[in-house]
């Protein structure tokens, strides 16, 4: 027979006497609010500060649309807006088909080396957007290796386009690969049985199934290009774009009002894109849930060979663009003295902060990863798992999605306006590494949040209910079960924060002070001063560091997974 | 129903009163009241989406109602957090913690945590109880579905809760495992005497396992009764259709307890409800095939359209004369068939016992 | 509750920054590779004062100082174009101070007011960096004058600094306007604009680009040209015969500094002979006569070639000139 432990108070029934306030419920209600407050401070208030600035005079009086009228009346800015639009549209038209082809070859053919190609496609994520631009100058500039391949000058529209294609390729690729991998093999099979040829199958089955992916890839690319500032800064020449204009207005001329207006102009397409994207994401999720059978390509020599050739070509372009940057950093004096040297890695004679900027970058990236990952994970936990937070969860979820709609440049401007405002008690943070870390975490919050939330959603929805029935408080279950099971996702998020913090410029360029300059910002400064080789060296350091840390974290993830395999096996 | 009064005089072990829960404009649970006695095994039965889980979660405190109360021994616990209630819960998904061993899963709610030796002993006892001795060090992924559900049950019982809540605990299992575990669950419940509220959409399961069955439909309770009450005297057309097999005959009122089906008159065991048109309900096993014709009320001739062997039973499709378009299903037991051979095309006398006929007003289809 | 925590954290952070005693925030537009020896020399002589440099190009530092007018963050400006400092002086943002060695500073190289609001350090002047290797490849003749640069052969071969961001860019524009007169000056720039491949951010970059052969001709300044040539870049330095635009690098104390004593010590140092000896390593014309030594890369009559430069005029018109310049040339693509 069972011997019941002392806990049993026979006949006491389902109710147990209440003792003290319910800490769990209290925490459950307060913690999500803390997160909401933090996101308000880190995203919403800076944005509002920027909005306000666009409508106020320098002395604080309301001027309505005067700044807008002024901007609309200045041909340079209108020109920049048109240029931004043209180059973004062009990049979208190039990248989406290219990335689609790449993803198609990887997911729908049985070609060789797919794992390697996939990694190559993601390589650009490790580099700041200035790096491909610098490489382009070395390749196609007036002293470029392959200068004769191109008719005109690399400086301007075509150079910017090429750089943006490299920079946005992995983003489009990731979306399209997911969309293609998820679409149902049964449809393709049915079409084949019905006698549809490969072309017809492609247009009647494959393409429609991936249409959400195509649209969202296009939107993401467009926004990335509109708001990118690294590529046009380096190879834009006199091809002025809005993102660079915002930088010139605020940093170059300290014209904050104009900067705010340009920032708003950048925010509008980003917000639109974001709205459409979220709608599509929801529909795509609905379309996916019913699907079951993944596509398993079979060997078809001709097709596989063609795919291999295409993949090789694109991969070669990606790798060479990176390799040229690395090589340039190791040559003594391009193009007159091509001997090997490490001299460019001695940054003492150039602007931008040199090695201390690099160390700052490491600190910033580490801090963003170590602080950001747990923060994001807990935030996602409140929204997905915490019953007591159910009321606040929708608000928190909305705030978690907001940063995706805010380009880094706009966020950085917002930080200038909000955190450097004389009345802000947090002003002391301005110019410091802490605020830069906050900004970085805020900037990349959404993607990290979605990663964590997806991982959490994959857990059994009843863990918390079971724990509650066993009278185990949520933090114990979080620590004993949720965290260990989600460790790989947590590492993923940390890696994402680290690499993003290493490579991003757009927000930080407004926030650094001489002591807190970071490597990616130093790139801009060095390039501005014409120290291209040193810039290439710094870019190489960034890529090498991102790659090394990514590999290390992948290894860690592997180790964790192996340990997990113990409780996963049969 | 005799011991009832004694119990109802005291407060029931668990009661819900006027419980409602809405999701937006949709009412998932609509004014539900129910009382459960100590030691009783109650099943919530109903089609998917009728609000069973919603009710269970309200009882567990995992959700809060929009209206109504949950009472334990008469005390209002509607707003009490789960941790202040006293129950164990088992879900269809088992919800075993994948990174913890079976022993750690079962000991998860045992306090204080440092008393490991005592917990180990308790885990051993529970594993024995649920028929999995020696499984302490395995991880959930290494167990079959049935074994995982046993562990989940052990975990729910570990703290000796006063109430056991089960949400479709057997639905994810193979038919054979399910039947076996069903019987064990019932045996265990009787042995421990733990009051149990179980959700299921499987009527056979509910009838087999429960002391009392609560049939739910669209957020409301249709009927509460013992399995035999539910089966024999379904309180509504919905219950009659949902539980077991049934023949339905379109009927018109002739007298207070007489209806007309086709050209036949049938007498009922009780008075008809209000209305003129009815659906007449009769279970297949209550359609009696006679050896020879004997003029009697509620007896008619029918042609055998089909004979299907169904294991323990043989199922006949009968086309009664004078009832064009009507097919009656009858279930015959082997002992009956041994006395009499039935082949398709044969005309057989059929009796529909008056006390087994129930008329539901037409149009009350759910 | 959280607000209190935050406030406490902020308080701590503020307290921590205030702890260091004599730290001067120095705004500068000096070349990055020049700052280090200057800083070390000063800190060696004044071990109790630490310098924290904020370096940006001339235009940015000027804009920054102007925007911080009501809430200055800099204590001292050390190494900014005299034109820019004159703008600040006109706005009453500089603290007049006569450094100890003021008497030995050339009168033309200091603010006219007494005590002066800024004191010069050295002269930097326009120089054309001309890549001989690329020019030979393209068959470009070596330009001798500013006017030569408008010849059609040089179309798309020239880069110069943007006058809004770069002090070098501004001194070029300012000199052309003072040299040629207003109308002729703008006419000249219109023609030059046709040949211009790019306007770049900094004054060094055109010479660096010329040195790398990216563009054969870069309008820059002599320090960068001499340094790159010394390093072996295949460039010739051209000193156009109409005369060289120039500006002074100068020092000033920002009005309202909380560290006036330390700031004055830095102003003393910046005008002192030891400091001049450091400047001498980079520039041929110094504010203190008798320190400079001849530079083999510069012509002997270099100082004579400097055009007449009226800082007061340049400062008064700086804003208008930049506006007009922007109106005419801001979008290169447009004009073509
Ligand atoms: N959180 C929720 N939000 C909206 N609708 C819900 C929610 N939970 C349950 N429902 C709806 O309430 C109804 C009853 O659900 P449930 O109690 O789970 O049914 P079941 O009887 O199958 O257990 C269903 O129609 C379901 O869609
Ligand atoms: Mg359910």
Provide structural commentary.
The complex is a heterotrimer of chains A (570), B (366) and C (336). Chain A has 570 residues and is an all-alpha fold. Helices cover 70% and strands 1% of the residues of chain A. Chain A has 22 helices and two strands. In chain A, strands 1-2 form a two-stranded antiparallel sheet. The model of chain A is unreliable at 1-19 (pLDDT under 50). By secondary structure, chain B is an alpha+beta fold. Chain B folds into two domains: 5-241, Rossmann fold (3-Layer(aba) Sandwich); 245-361, OB fold (Dihydrolipoamide Acetyltransferase, E2P) (Beta Barrel), CATH 2.40.50.100. Chain B has helices at residues 4-9, 52-60, 102-106, 116-129, 145-157, 175-192, 203-209, 227-232, 237-242, 334-339; strands at 14-23, 26-36, 41-45, 67-72, 75-76, 87-90, 163-167, 195-200, 212-217, 220-225, 247-255, 258-261, 264-267, 277-282, 288-289, 299-310, 313-320, 328-332, 347-351, 358-361. In chain B, the strands form four sheets. In chain B, strands 6-7-8-3-9-10 form a six-stranded mixed beta sheet, sandwiched between helices. In chain B, β12 and β13 form a beta hairpin. Chain B is elongated and about 80 Å long. Chain B starts with a helix and ends in a 5-residue tail after the last strand. Chain C is α/β, with parallel strands linked by helices and 336 residues long. Chain C is built from 14 helices and eleven strands. In chain C, strands 1, 2, 3, 4, 5, 6, 7, 8, 9, 10 and 11 form an eleven-stranded mixed beta sheet that branches. The longest helix of chain C is centred in the last third of the chain and has 19 residues, at 311-329. Chain C is globular. Chain C starts with a helix and ends with a helix. At the A-C interface, α3 and α11 of A face α1, α2, β2, α3 and β7 of C. The site of magnesium ion (MG) has 4 residues of chain B, from α2.
